[in-house]
Amino acid sequence: MAKDFTLLQINDTHSYLENHQELFWDGDRAEYRKAGGYARIRSLIKEIKAETNGRTMALDNGDTIHGTYQAVKSKGRSMIPILNKMGFEGMTAHWEFGYGSENFMEITEELNYPMLAINLYDEESNNLVFDPYLIKKYGDLKVGVIGVAATIIDKVMPDWFSEGIYLTLGNEELPNYIAELKEKDVDLIVVLSHLGFPQEIKLAEEVDGIDVLLSGHTHNRVHKPAVFNDTIIIQSGCHGSFVGRLDLKLENKKVVDFKHQLITVEESIKEDREVKAEVEKVMKPHRKKLEEVLGFTEIALNRNMVLESTMDNFLLDSLLDLTGAEMAFSNGWRYGAPIIPGPITRNDLWNIIPVNPPVSTVKLSGKELWEMMEVNLERTFAADPYQQMGGYVKRSAGINLYFKIENPAGERIQKLFVQGKEVEFDRVYDVAFVTSQGVRAEYGKEREKLDINAIENLERYLKKVKKVEPKLRNTIVAV
Q: Which residues are in the 5'-Nucleotidase C-terminal domain (predicted)?
């Protein structure tokens, strides 16, 4: 007899507690409307659990407790009472380590559901830090969920993310845990992963026995599930703007049919009163400060583009204005809700760069610039998904780079210009940047942190220029 079961997924909410502007593509243009909010997500979870008579499991792929002002100021702790009311039954992690591993471990002890990771180890003991999996019964159905945390935590993220821990890819450990769950007579095996959509497709191709893979990290809006090696793979956008719903039909421990829906968390969805009250407790002390208008934008600022974005051009323009440098760089972050034409608030600035690092400068040779950009392009577009280690392409200003996506590592750049002139390998250039991912430590000399942080500098810049229009400039162009 067939058994019905429903999985609900959220991923990469980046602590967006309330609804916010979200970008939606419509033909040849972007449109913006409000979406998201934890109180609305809770309403959806409750409604679907009631509809399915409780045969529903809600899971969180991580990137949950970092990304907005309230989360950063509390080191993620303001999220705990809200998360404990959501009805989640498991999660894995990435930016959760942005406040240090010890802080996150303390937070997990206060959550009423487990953190799962088969690939996250204690540096001293080599033991797993968290449970590798959970098993839960829903009537006559036994479900096993295996967690895989973001492998890049100790590879490309700042050092404090991985103090006392190390991570593997998880692909070598996974078959053993699948076998263990099968020995425990599990009907459905779910992998909850934060490796990224391309990486997880390769993982599913390599490893047999995964029924469903809930994907995170790369902010894909999957409208039609990918199926590889009999594994159903979904991912559900970011910022809590979407909930992924996967209705399954099982017979003899096999998925024989499924139906998927990427649900937009629209403003029209009624907010859960209990969660809304918790969100208000968190946000009320900060509203006056965060809602202050600091300037205006003539165009929409968004981060939804792989090669260059208006939002990051705004950030980089502020660095160039402060330092007088010839070029500027920041990390290719995916998170950051759009800002529509009109007022720019302090809250918007914190959404752009919640890590709020100091502005830094460095001297960089033309040869180093070329090498740095080649490495970044490889980490973004590597033919082997397991070698894709970043977000989007490094955000850049003051340069124009033309490259071939399909070329092998180290051979992508066709032409590179600085301030309109072809790069000179022997020349030393003045560079401004934010975070170690903007210009990694192995590049340049005379590195200096200035006595001003990114958000303070954005406020200074808006006070000076009043209005911005940081259009796309063909900084990075695929040819």
A: 298-432
